[in-house]
């Protein structure tokens, strides 16, 4: 998103995350700072459900508060929800779009994370009306965005669209009914990753109080906090010598403060690979941690 904004000459402002999603206090401070510069915040982009890379979800009360903030500031919310249907411990929270009573949410979805990555097909629900020169309700935002998309990509592949259509017809037009096996697989991987972290880090007398991680209730990622900064040199050593690939959270943010955190993914791996990988990762962390 920031890359596209840069190309288009649109100014962006990063807002930090709290333990369970966007930090709403920081958001309000950012809005105030922008307004003090004589500018107007127009839109907010976020992933409220099992986000990448943190794996956290915004609680219901915070969702309702966020919607009210957007309404009061006349600001659109772009809700990107690629992982919301991958809930492993009960149902997900209602989407921002479902809770939206003011028409401030533009909903972004994808089939790539739920069916298979090569599809690269998504969708958008943008039912806001654009005011015309007389201030009256004009076309829907979705109609205008469709025109823009047609100029950029000409057309989304009809083959991949037909594949999705056929898949939906075979599953009574429901993605949810088709995800039972996938969710069982991902949940087992998540549980294996949590168990392996507890086994290798939680019981280590040196690392038990220095390494921590969160508990994702869905999605494909969790976050581990390390006792030191994972520099590019250390990251290279981790890959080359220990054959473990992790992703520093500093790769995902424009803000400081995440230098000692990494993302672990548990999607395209087996439970045995997870167990082996965590054991090797523990050896790597231990080798760089003083007793």
From TrEMBL:
GO terms for biological process: alpha-amino acid metabolic process. Its cofactor is pyridoxal 5'-phosphate. This is Aminotransferase class I/classII large domain-containing protein. It holds the Pfam family Aminotran_1_2. Keywords: Aminotransferase, Pyridoxal phosphate, Transferase. GO terms for molecular function: pyridoxal phosphate binding; transaminase activity. Residues 10-280 form the Aminotransferase class I/classII large domain. InterPro entries: Aminotransferase_I/II_large, Class-I_PLP-dep_aminotransf, PyrdxlP-dep_Trfase, PyrdxlP-dep_Trfase_major, PyrdxlP-dep_Trfase_small. It comes from the Bacteria. Transmembrane segments: none annotated.
